[in-house]
Amino acid sequence: MSNEPVPLSPWRVKLHEVIFEADTSAGKLFDFVLIWCILLSVFMIIMESVEPINDKYGELFFWTEWVLTVLFTIEYILRIICLGKPFKYIFSFFGIVDLISILPTYIGIFVYGQGHNLVVIRALRLLRIFRLFKLVRYVDESRVLINGLRRALPKIVVFIGAVFTFIIIIATVMYMIEGSHKGSEFNSIPRCMYWAIVTLSTVGYGDLAPVTVPGQIFASMVMLCGYGVIAVPPAIVTIGMVESFRAKVDNRSCQQCGSEGHEPVAKYCYACSALLPESHDKDGE
Amino acid sequence: MSNEPVPLSPWRVKLHEVIFEADTSAGKLFDFVLIWCILLSVFMIIMESVEPINDKYGELFFWTEWVLTVLFTIEYILRIICLGKPFKYIFSFFGIVDLISILPTYIGIFVYGQGHNLVVIRALRLLRIFRLFKLVRYVDESRVLINGLRRALPKIVVFIGAVFTFIIIIATVMYMIEGSHKGSEFNSIPRCMYWAIVTLSTVGYGDLAPVTVPGQIFASMVMLCGYGVIAVPPAIVTIGMVESFRAKVDNRSCQQCGSEGHEPVAKYCYACSALLPESHDKDGE
Amino acid sequence: MSNEPVPLSPWRVKLHEVIFEADTSAGKLFDFVLIWCILLSVFMIIMESVEPINDKYGELFFWTEWVLTVLFTIEYILRIICLGKPFKYIFSFFGIVDLISILPTYIGIFVYGQGHNLVVIRALRLLRIFRLFKLVRYVDESRVLINGLRRALPKIVVFIGAVFTFIIIIATVMYMIEGSHKGSEFNSIPRCMYWAIVTLSTVGYGDLAPVTVPGQIFASMVMLCGYGVIAVPPAIVTIGMVESFRAKVDNRSCQQCGSEGHEPVAKYCYACSALLPESHDKDGE
Amino acid sequence: MSNEPVPLSPWRVKLHEVIFEADTSAGKLFDFVLIWCILLSVFMIIMESVEPINDKYGELFFWTEWVLTVLFTIEYILRIICLGKPFKYIFSFFGIVDLISILPTYIGIFVYGQGHNLVVIRALRLLRIFRLFKLVRYVDESRVLINGLRRALPKIVVFIGAVFTFIIIIATVMYMIEGSHKGSEFNSIPRCMYWAIVTLSTVGYGDLAPVTVPGQIFASMVMLCGYGVIAVPPAIVTIGMVESFRAKVDNRSCQQCGSEGHEPVAKYCYACSALLPESHDKDGE
């Protein structure tokens, strides 16, 4: 298969414009209808799970579901048709999301015919919730946030790893203290780990709480340490975002040696002393 | 209606001074009385809702309420009288707040006469709580805070949107795990969403908590992820505020040596002692 | 009374050295003993409140209490004796704290003799907990923290005021929603305010939680907004501390015009262009 | 004992390479096996504490435990053999961790033979959880995080000390308010301290909550103050980390124009293009 762009017939070019571009009024209408279909679909999946509502409107849900699935199927087929190289789309993130959005409904019939049990069918139907990801296409503004988070992510993963180690130690100590006490619910390390996570994250359900005095003293110490623990992620994310903003401020690269990361005030390249192009940073976002 | 300022008779000018300006002693007295009337009024609305207190002091509340309403009505009328173009005030934020502050009491009588039920009357009476907004006029110091928040707001909205999507996914997974378990209260997606919000915001009432082992493992994972989620808003607001402070500093650069980052009060360049251009910082945005 | 320093006899100078300065070994010993007496005293007050422990060691507590009180009394008298102008000390923060540390024990006897009831006596005895403040004398390292907080304090006060207004509104709306529902505990605005504070501060005891569907939806919205609210104080304090550190970096003042707040890189005064003294900033702490 | 390096026979050099270095494929395999043994071991300790699982797989756990202990023992002996100066290793952090990892199993038999009670044996066996620390050898990426925390640590300790003082005061006041109320569980200062810690850290189990109106008002005030308290650690850690990052940048100033803030990779001044002095940044502290 060559890498040359495949020439498309005019109606496919037109179709591509409507589906993939939002500049024309037809394209805007298409996007508008699609977004509302997705939101309606997600709303219905949520409502279906409420038994009294499902008992009452079950049939309505059933038929709307089919109408929406048919619409999403048409959309999926149109997308494939109007592209010169459809396989790139099919195996892309959005291609897979679009497929998952329609598949469960169809499989549902097949599985039902096979007499599978209800749990499997329900799980399948719930998969439709991933239609939410079809919305990602329409949210551009989140990119700065995501960039900042992506910079912070490796440090957050290391941090959560460290917290997890910390949690195992805390859980073991708590198990030593309260484990053999009658009436205490801290009767296994995994349960203590659950408690430690609930406590250190400051969620504090209260479904598990220490009942002995040493247990309460130890829990108090853990909570005071929690001050230090909960303080780390905001610091990491703040720094990640500051870096992400700063990186945006100046993206000039030296025309002589290609080095990047110049300060906005810099006039000369720090690596080869060549004159830099004018700094054209626009203020604001 | 022309845009020319309407000439006011001397007593209206005098009245305007008392009501809208705080420099004269009469103006200060007016503001002082008004603030205490508002605070007293809000305090009474809160106390009225406590049944034993209302049973005891109900009559006192009733008459104080009427005195305050009459006072607020006089204030409202005076404000309209002393202004050249009253409609601008009537349809402004403060004009509407001032109207809402008195209306419920009057409508209350009318509605009562019509024999409407108690819920409607109570809701109406509670609307008077918006008298609180009359205080906004007197809080100037909050402007820097609000400025910083306003810069951060669009990002916070995107963030809450992202969290909400995240919550729908978490709720659906939790519903898959615990939904069919007997004795579990996670029996619908909206309920799971409520739990997900209570957990991710680290509030953790504990009125809903997972009871199965897989449910508790999943909840633990959600709480660990919550570390990352709760870290984002402080980062956004910190950056928003830093920007808001920095914007206030100034962006002059020395015309001799190009150095930047001068303080707004600076007259001379800190690097080469050359005269700086005039500082043209407007306060606020 | 003149402002001239009063000449002290040699033994009073010596005494002053021991009590107020920590450089000599006698002074260090004095401080060491005092700190441990304070800690012991606070520990005893806490333990006394636990009934089973008090029943068992009550007599021991009683006598230790008297020994410590006598020691603190001697310390108080010595401090007054060795100072040239004792009234300045007596009415200073530490003078009052030192007095409050001994007074309750003495008043206790008098009150007991008068046959006052137990609640008054207990409240009096608990006042001794303020002996803790005697320790403040010995904690120098906290000054940077306190400085940073003091800069942030006015903004935090405005912020808490804003949150409080917000809480009144939330409480009123919640009272409208759940107030008339049977079985709901949200039966007065003050109770709703308590709930709103517990929720917005992410403490979430769970002693009050909404039971109706609209109540849970509204609570979810409040919690999501809570993300924005909880994000503000870290931002304020971070900025306050950054400013406090920056202020420490450069404390040169212009020798010509006395202006302060020069950047560490500045060579010339930004106000009068005079040459600044060398920047002698030591790095870090 | 001399300080000269002890010459090692070739097979010990080879052994040292396998155990202490990760560059060769033998060394990588050794590390890989060791890491999985540690993880397996920790997983088993956690699972052993769950009674139903222990009842079922107790024997499996017993034998796996012995195999792992023997492996760790061999590792410990090999480490000692291949080093020229083994005592330095034995008394190092990792030497002690490695010893603690194997000792409990051996002591377990001895103690069991002596007929000690179950609690002691269980506590001993749980000590094996410290095998987790053997993993620290393999986590390099956490150094930046740890550096930032280490800078923030002294301030966090002062902060926790201040919070603790604050908590004693709050607990005493709460004890005054609710202590004599029947039905209230705030019947001793230590219990009130536990409550104060649970509240101020925003964990909020709800196992203790005020029941009187003054108690709830005071609790509300504490929670509002908690906003200020919880805000401090993120600020401290953020600043600590920013400093730690900045320290890594560099502190050279241009010898021609005095401008600062050069990147560590910079060779030429960004302001005047003069050659900069050599960058002498050491990585880490």
Mind explaining what this structure looks like?
The structure is a homotetramer of 285-residue chains. By secondary structure, chain A is an all-alpha fold. Chain A folds into 2 domains: 124 residues, Four Helix Bundle (Hemerythrin (Met), subunit A) (Up-down Bundle), CATH 1.20.120.350; 100 residues, Helix Hairpins. Chain A has 10 helices and no strands. Chain A is flat and about 80 Å long. The two termini of chain A are 42 Å apart. The C terminus of chain A is likely disordered. Chains A and D meet through α7, α8, α9 and α10 of A and α2, α6, α7, α8 and α10 of D.
Question: TL;DR of this structure?
Answer:
The structure is a homotetramer. Chain A has about 280 residues and is an all-alpha fold. Chain A has ten helices and no strands.
Features:
10 helices, 2 domains, flat, homotetramer, Helix Hairpins, Four Helix Bundle (Hemerythrin (Met), subunit A), 285 residues, mainly alpha, 0% strand, disordered C terminus
CATH superfamily of the largest domain in chain A: Voltage-gated potassium channels. Chain C
Number of helices of chain A: 10
Number of domains of chain A: 2
Largest sheet of chain A: none
Query: What portion of the residues of chain A fall into strands of 2 or more residues?
Result: under 5%
Question: N-to-C SSE series of chain A?
Answer: HHHHHHHHHH
What is the 3D shape of chain A?
flat
- Mean pLDDT figure of chain A: 79
| Reported CATH architecture of the largest domain in chain A | Up-down Bundle
Relative helix content of chain A: 55-70%
In total, how many beta strands of chain A?
Answer: 0
CATH topology of the largest domain in chain A: Four Helix Bundle (Hemerythrin (Met), subunit A)
Radius of gyration of chain A: 28 Å
Regarding quaternary structure, what we see is: homotetramer
Low-confidence stretches of chain A: 281-285
- Structural category of chain A: mainly alpha
- According to CATH, what is the class of the largest domain in chain A? Mainly Alpha
Largest interchain contact: A-D, 57 and 62 residues
